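Pipeline run #58 for the internal structure catalog. This entry was flagged by the ingest filter as a single-chain record with no existing model, so it goes straight to prediction. Upstream metadata was stripped on purpose; only the residue string is passed forward. Reviewer on rotation: M.T. Logging verbosity set to normal.
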Amino acid sequence: MSGQGPNPQEVEEALKQLRRELTNPAFANALERAIRPPRKHRPGYRPQPDYAGLRHWARAQSTGTYVGIYDGIEAGMDTAAGRWQTVCDDHGRIISHRTLELARRHAPCPEEWCEVCSGEESPDA
């Protein structure tokens, strides 16, 4: 190596390439998405709590209530009926499952296992 930098033609070509990339709409959109500040959350949004054993937490579309899936052993819950617990956080109702897959299947439909979501009980019962 002679210690010289790039020749002027190489620099000019690199600058032309950079200008082409910066004016490419796909690149500009990707760059905008990458530096965009986080959007404000929807009204009623609550971030996932940091509870022991909590594996998944989301709002059920069918009822609007928050449902969590817990590892009952890590959470210190009664696991006699199964290790995995699906919990209606809004009403405190719990259903136990032997597998994580079963817990995941029950999470989107709390009206099938939470007596308050289904209307069978009042919220203060």
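catalog note: The chain is about 30% helix and 20% strand.
catalog note: The mean pLDDT is 85.
status: ready for reviewer M.T.
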